[in-house]
Amino acid sequence: MSASVSLRDITDFAETLAREAGELIRREREDNTLRTDYKHQTELVTHADVMADEFITGAIRKRFPDHRILSEETMPDLSQAEELDTPLWIVDPIDGTVNYAYGHPQVAVSIAYAERGEVQAGVVHAPFPGETFRATKGEGATLNGKPIKHSGATEPRQSLFATGFPYTKDNLEPLVRRLDAMIHQCRDLRRIGSAALDICWVACGRLDIYYENVSPWDFAAARLIAKEAGATAGHFGDVPADYPADLWGRDILISAPAVWEPVRSILRSASGYD
Ligand code: IPD
Ligand code: CA
Ligand code: CA
Ligand code: CA
């Protein structure tokens, strides 16, 4: 990053882009008939996903032509996450596309900025309720400008958890085993439909626990927001030694600190890892 651009400036820029993209996707849903396509099996993509992706990545490229970009719709090359020499932007133009297409409000634009594989800034903007979560590393996390904190949950039995399920239905069995174990040992489940919002909701105490297997664009920004809100973020499975943990999407577990270890044990044993 050039000496004149601070991480705060980077976060401000990401927030401006997320808000403008949020306005675009809100307008497209309200004013137009969505043009919807299938990516594969049950995964949808709308014309607004692609428009928002092109808007955000175009603006990043214009301001920071030397930086790399990983984005779900136009630049999904995951090998970018392993190249550490130049800064990386990680973009999900619409997290919660199925919600978006069905007219549900839980939809977010997610933008993260990483240096040497470590996320330094993250913004998750939900345009329908008008909520913007943001964090700059080391400076705490906010929701619409007000500091946020995790719930402080102390035991799984009194915890509300969220998770999600992949669009590809080839290997659901381990996920069903985890779900079975968690439902038996926690208060209840919410399936919000946006991984970024699941994690931001752990950050602000609307949920106590989140776990899933997702892609970097789904969680990179929200994970920093959760950490900056004092939640514990890690993995219940192994992260390859040479891969940046901030961008590793398998077996993610983010929760209020006191329940993290007990839930990790539940998920490891349900997964057959121990
Ligand atoms: C999806 C959402 C969902 C999660 C899926 C993701 P998309 O992202 O975050 O909650 O369960 O794994 O792919 O496709 O709506 O951007
Ligand atoms: Ca997503
Ligand atoms: Ca998406
Ligand atoms: Ca998608």
TrEMBL record:
Q: Name one GO biological process term.
A: phosphatidylinositol phosphate biosynthetic process
Reaction(s) catalysed by this chain's protein: a myo-inositol phosphate + H2O = myo-inositol + phosphate
Molecular function GO terms recorded? inositol monophosphate 1-phosphatase activity; metal ion binding
What does the sequence similarity comment in the record state about its family?
A: Belongs to the inositol monophosphatase superfamily.
Keywords from UniProt, A to Z, are: Hydrolase, Magnesium, Metal-binding, Transcription, Transcription antitermination, Transcription regulation
Write down the EC number.
Answer: 3.1.3.25
Annotated protein name in UniProt: Inositol-1-monophosphatase
Keyword Magnesium (UniProt): yes
What Pfam families does the database record attribute to this sequence? Inositol_P (PF00459)
Tell me the cofactors it needs: Mg(2+)
What general EC class does the enzyme of this chain belong to? Answer: hydrolase
Q: Which residues bind Mg(2+)?
A: E72, D92, I94, D95, D218
> Mind giving the lineage of the organism this protein is from?
Bacteria, Pseudomonadati, Pseudomonadota, Gammaproteobacteria, Pseudomonadales
